[in-house]
Backbone:
């Protein structure tokens, strides 16, 4: 699996945790946990997307776990490396969406 946000950085609300659980992802495999925030104040839950994806590949597609490799690169922690790509992607989609709006309204 390629780079993605790490479980340490992927803070979610309880409603997101519930969506994962409702869709069959076990809490233990997801790595949903509350970790201590500043001064040991409880923070939001975190989800391990790599574990969730590995589980999905294994259970849904039958990919053996030993064939699944995880890059371990966090896009949040390595913001400077990945920001440019997401900025370009967002700009392209924004331009495309703007063009569609013009076409739909007979402007372009």
Residues:
């Amino acid at each position: 699996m390629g780079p993605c946000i790490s479980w340490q950085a992927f803070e979610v609300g309880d409603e997101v945790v519930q969506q994962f659980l409702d869709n069959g992802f076990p809490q233990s495999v997801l790595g949903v946990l509350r970790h201590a925030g500043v001064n040991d104040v409880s923070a939001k839950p975190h989800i391990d997307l790599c574990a969730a994806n590995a589980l999905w590949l294994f259970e849904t597609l039958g990919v053996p776990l030993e064939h699944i490799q995880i890059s371990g690169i966090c896009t949040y922690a390595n913001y400077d490396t990945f920001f440019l790509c997401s900025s370009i992607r967002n700009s392209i989609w924004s331009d495309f969406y703007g063009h569609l709006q013009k076409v739909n309204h007979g402007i372009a």
In short: The longest strand covers residues 42-46. The two ends are 40 Å apart (CA to CA). The beta strands are 33-36, 42-46. The chain is about 50% helix and 10% strand.
